Amino acid sequence: MNGLLRKLGIRLPIxxxxxxxxxxxxxxxxxxxxxxxxxxxxxxxxxxxxxxxxGAVRAMSEHxxxxxxxxxxxxxxxxxxxxxxxxxLAPEFARYGATPPAALREIYTTFAEDDATLAMLxxxxxxxxxxxxGLPPRERxxxxxxxxxxxxxxxxxxxxxxxxxxxxxxxxxxxxFEAGGHRGVFDPEAIDDRLGTFALTRLLVRELxxxxxxxxxxxxxxxxxACLLLGASAAQLGTAFVxxxxxxxxxxxxxxxxxxxxxxxVMTRVISGRPARGLxxxxxxxxxxxxxxxxxxxxxxxxxxxxxxxxxxGEHGFGAQWAGQGxxxxxxxxxxxxxxxxxxEMDLALARxxxxxxx
Length: 359
Fold this sequence. Notes:
- Helix 2 (25-33) runs parallel beside helix 3, helix 4 (79-95) runs parallel beside helix 13 (298-312) and helix 9 crosses helix 14 (335-355).
- The protein has 14 helices and 11 strands.
- Helix 9 (221-229) links the parallel strand 8 and strand 9 (234-237).
- It is α/β, with parallel strands linked by helices.
- It has helices spanning 3-8, 25-33, 47-60, 79-95, 115-124, 138-146, 158-167, 197-207, 221-229, 239-242, 251-257, 282-286, 298-312, 335-355, and strands spanning 14-16, 38-41, 65-70, 128-132, 150-155, 171-175, 181-182, 212-215, 234-237, 266-268, 276-278.
């Protein structure tokens, strides 16, 4: 068992990604009970809902789990851009007998400014808290550390990883460009080097004196083994868990995951306002056209409203159907069984490598 696993209090180097809106307390508990690290994403809910989610995991598991928060910069409102975007989507709303929002709003608060969620986490003291989209202010990190919480942070390049290390986190999630869901870039307007999982993992392992968790495109035990051989202390998988019965993915999302669309994932801003990889669908095909997409998460206000209107008429193609480039390898298994399968595959892969080593 490596140092990171001991610090996290888990047996297997398998972390279920904290997919906000898709991962559930039942999924997190099942993964943790199976020896991995289950996760819940609370970046898009209130502190009270997050507290209830933590309580729900604890009711089903006595093992450690991860609570993920969003640390994006506050949204920059631009009423002209937002009005143009609503006008761009208006024909789609009309197609499903709905009216677009009169005005868009920032639908949730960044953890960097969310005092209620910070106080809740300090009081509840989950074993692990992880940061996505950046880092919160140092005093918030200190408050969590002083509560005995293990801290992880997503990085998509070496500069972000070094910033996370300097801030005092316990491990860095190396999110490759293959990963499904939102890119964890600190600044979505900066140039993205689009480093793949293997290149980024190896770079961070060599350059940081900190455990690295590989993430992006990993769907089976062979992929986990490959990451461990690159020096990662664990692997984080998200898309692999979307089809589990414990997932909150709806029927349309699940069907799309097991369709030809899984072979052609796309990176898009149009759904939420931030780059995110998902299955191509009606929304991603729509594209931004000539209209500028509003700031994240203001754009999500329109996206969620359009999805709700279309889904009410039986059309699932406007959902945030996030998936990584490994999507064609998805399996429909209960979360605990999937973890067991991943562990077996990983052990067999590592044994095959060992058998070919000299001596």
